């Protein structure tokens, strides 16, 4: 690989808005506020088509302004201008959300207008709104809830992000320390892990209060909205049934022995009797191959192009137009994400690139999300709102395309770290996600009886990890509840199983793609449907039954094939 030491890029947000003080940003903000009054006036007239068009326009504006502010804030979490701008967007959005709730409450009285031929593509979305109407509180209660969420659960979530992005020890941030989990030197990994635990211990009270605040708020609101359990609302948002979730979870549980065998093989590849937590994502190769950012660009563009010229052209455009913020730095959130701007019809990708193959894979993952956004960009905004389950399918599909193409270019000895990284990532997306699902379910159950202490949260986390990792991993991570921001989402509980859904759905699709001459167009068509149908119907159009465990086992079989291949290097 090349030895390009150029500075990692920061994204360019100026094509979206020049700044948070710009007339363009402030004008869109004012339009959101104006839309609230317009929507209230239109509800009484019953002009359903006009209301839907207004919802489309306003959804695009909220997407643009909120994504813009969050993108700024996620790279500079303590910047007062960005915090203030996001607060203004949230204020305007809440006003519109209140008006939207009043519209949804009135929607059952407008069912006779659903037959308007101009609304034929909106059938599924309108049926979702009708279902939502069944779970609304009174108008005044919904207004109060929306106002309070902005200053309660939303702030708890922001606190967790701000704390974990700014704390550190020994000159390194928590995010940088967590990044050392993939260092080839076990001494470095262990030291970083121990320092991470020390930092989290020091901040456990603040983080436990934040998590208590989020989960407590969710339980109260979902009880008032007549949801039997937080998982029910989550499944509704994911557009899947309990039957589909049960099929997925049972498949993951069936795969526990396979993943534990893989972890035992990894321990032997590392020359260890047993893994500790800080060994789980360690590289197994004796030489640590460096992938520079330009290597990542070349690999992803080439791999995407091999599957679909359109995907390749899209990836090249994203790289060449500064869509990616890759440099880790103080004040920047950890992890990676893709965010879309519906009015501008573009996306941006955040990553924390560390020159490993995993970083290349992560970029491929996030650009898979961005390609999904690109495919649906010209649809009306309400019809391009796809659930997280199908969002993760697109990202992991992109990741898998890169993985299979990279393997073709490597000598046998070079394949070990790449195959192992693929299985390691799958293990995280299946086995670790299962532990997170167990933890969150237990956390909600316990939170119903009162607040949990940090010590109790740690105990629940260790219990969940014991159920999944078992004795395949000796030292486990009791503070995973503190570092995973997904637990702190008020809007979407169980922000975990969609990753496993996406992993196995994407692998099942990819396995079937080899027998189809024109699979790229089938895949594109699948992505186009994701905002207009249930996940079951989208999957069925591609010949997949997500309520049947047999389908999920197809994805597990792909992982198992590569896990067994690792034994060749023992």
Write out key terms for the chains shown:
570 residues; mainly alpha; three-stranded mixed β-sheet; 65% helix; globular
Distance between the termini: 26 Å
Question: Uncertain spans, ≥5 residues at pLDDT below 50?
Answer: 1-5
- Tally of DSSP helical segments: 23
- What structural class results from the helix and strand content? mainly alpha
Oligomer: single chain
Descriptive account of the structure:
The protein is mainly alpha-helical. The protein has 23 helices and five strands. The strands form two sheets. A three-stranded mixed sheet has the order 3-5-4. A two-stranded antiparallel ribbon has the order 1-2. β1 and β2 form a beta hairpin. α1 (23-45) packs antiparallel against α2 (48-74), α13 (293-307) runs antiparallel to α14 and α17 (412-447) runs antiparallel to α20. The chain is globular and about 70 Å long. The two termini are 26 Å apart. Mean pLDDT is 93; it is low at 1-5.
What is the secondary structure topology, with strand pairs?
Blueprint (H helix, E strand, L loop, with lengths): L22 H23 L2 H27 L5 H27 L16 H11 L5 H13 L1 H14 L1 E2 L2 E2 H6 L6 H17 L1 H21 L5 H9 L3 H13 L1 H14 L23 H15 L1 H12 L3 E2 L11 E5 L4 E5 L6 H19 L12 H21 L3 H36 L6 H16 L10 H4 L13 H17 L5 H11 L5 H7 L7 H17 L5
Parallel strand pairs: 3-5
Antiparallel strand pairs: 1-2, 4-5
Helix pairs in contact: 1-2, 1-3, 2-3, 3-4, 3-5, 5-6, 6-9, 11-23, 12-17, 13-14, 13-15, 13-16, 15-16, 16-20, 17-18, 17-20, 17-23, 20-23
